[in-house]
Write a structure and sequence with these properties.
This is Amidohydrolase family protein. The chain is α/β, with parallel strands linked by helices. Helices cover 30% and strands 23% of the residues. It folds into two domains: 141 residues, Roll (Urease, subunit C, domain 1); 282 residues, Alpha-Beta Barrel (TIM Barrel). The radius of gyration is 23 Å and the shape is globular.
Length: 424
């Protein structure tokens, strides 16, 4: 008798925890003076987005359904997607124990799974969410070899289980960085890359009696196998026009590969070929100075010229990709000021990343899509605008971070409660 009673009490104690997410995802209508849908509907004036049970029910104009909870905003958009970041895998970049982006002393490279180091409690997660980003693509950093490892996709809820796709892509670096990690030259980097592909293709014979191939360990070769077969996206960092041409040559030699390029500062010079080969690029549209010999032709018009040529463009912040991924909206706004159409800039933060990484039902406001929705107090690409509400899978997310809590704590602190250092 006692045992069933204890079990019943335990079940009752656990019940509220199990029901909490469903209770939070209540039906709501989000009304916007402007609703940017990311679909053929375009931008709606006085639009209404209805969400329920984690999905978007309807997108249109008019009024909210009777009796439904409502949120009013100047602008409404899909949840933004950071197409390249290291958010959540480092807390303090300069402190080795708090930085899991790379492993310079590890014998492994392509097998390193960045998701193993993801911390949903990391302070940059909430900061990123507060700026309207609901999904992030997180990449490891190449420290010892040109193969950095396996990247993943996550939401910014800050909850356990927020990684929704591990090993979503393989990441490697070419150009200057690849050269320095491969012995000092671009020929060395390309020899290492081709040798690694051979290790994978001849895996059975090469690793029958040995743990190491010409370039990769057994584990690294196994991890890279889906990418070599064309079953996994490969993100390649390359910036100089000649490096981009070499990547495209390699793609032509291996037509089954799924390739996207990160950086592409001189991409505008080879934009027509990138478009013809349907290779998307992930760019920092604020990169406009010759900071290295790989960026001599960098320009603020890079994103606009790439898009005009028909290249799929995603915009990110590569200058601080761990803590400031959120600044991609400002960078996109800068691109608009330098010729990129507004709608294309918004696509570069939503539909383009969703397309690159195969995120179905994300990056758009459409019936049946996942209810990642952001309400804004102004134009999303204006530096003075900010989200007023963020939904991830229909759940209203807290609009606070460690920074906002500290601000609120000390902004109204009574002078008598100030620490000694602040009293004099």
């Amino acid at each position: 008798m006692i045992r069933p009673l204890i079990l019943s009490l335990a079940a009752l104690a656990l019940a509220p925890i199990a029901l909490a997410p469903a209770a939070l995802a209540e039906p709501v209508a989000i009304l916007g003076e402007k609703v940017w849908t990311g679909t053929a509907q375009g931008t709606l004036t006085n639009g209404v987005v209805v969400i329920d049970e984690g999905e978007i029910v309807s997108v249109g104009t008019g009024t909210a359904p009777a009796g439904m909870a409502t949120i009013e905003a100047e602008w409404v958009t899909p949840g933004l997607i950071s197409a390249f970041s290291r958010t959540g895998i480092t807390e303090v970049p300069g402190e080795r124990s708090a930085n899991d982006t790379g492993a310079s002393a590890s014998p492994f490279s392509a097998a390193l799974n960045a998701a193993d180091g993801f911390n949903p409690d990391a302070t940059p997660i909430a900061v990123t969410r507060l700026e309207g980003f609901t999904r992030i693509a997180v990449a490891p950093d190449a420290r010892a070899k040109l193969f950095a490892g396996q990247g993943f996709l996550a939401d910014t809820s800050g909850l356990p289980g927020s990684v929704f796709e591990e090993r979503a892509f393989a990441f490697l670096v070419l150009g200057e960085r690849g050269a320095s990690l491969s012995g000092g030259s671009r020929p060395a980097a390309w020899t290492a890359l081709r040798g690694a592909f051979d290790d994978v293709r001849f895996f059975g014979a090469r690793y029958m009696t040995h743990n190491d191939g010409n370039v990769l360990t057994r584990m690294d070769a196994q991890a890279l196998m889906p990418a070599v077969k064309g079953e996994q996206l490969i993100l390649i960092e390359a910036r100089r026009a000649s490096d981009l041409e070499a990547v495209m040559d390699f793609k032509e030699e291996n037509p089954m590969l799924k390739v996207a390029i990160v950086g592409a500062d001189e991409g505008w010079r080879v934009a027509d070929r990138l478009a013809a080969m349907n290779i998307p690029v992930i760019v920092d549209a604020f990169s406009n100075l010759p900071a290295s010999f790989s960026q001599l032709a960098a320009t603020s018009e890079n994103a606009g010229r790439l898009a005009e040529a028909g290249v799929t463009v995603a915009i990110v912040n590569l200058d601080d990709d761990s803590h400031q991924a959120r600044l991609a909206t400002q960078i996109a706004g800068t691109a608009v000021a330098n010729g990129l159409p507004f709608d294309t800039a918004m696509q570069a933060l939503t539909t383009a990343p969703a397309e690159i990484f195969g995120m179905e039902g994300l990056g758009v406001l459409a019936p049946g899509a996942r209810a990642d929705v952001v309400a804004w107090d102004g134009d999303p690409l204006e530096v003075t605008s900010a989200p007023t509400a963020v939904f991830i899978d229909g759940v209203s997310e807290p609009m606070e971070s460690r920074q906002t809590k500290l601000r609120d704590r000390y902004l109204s602190l009574d002078t008598s409660e100030r620490p000694l250092a602040y009293k004099h």
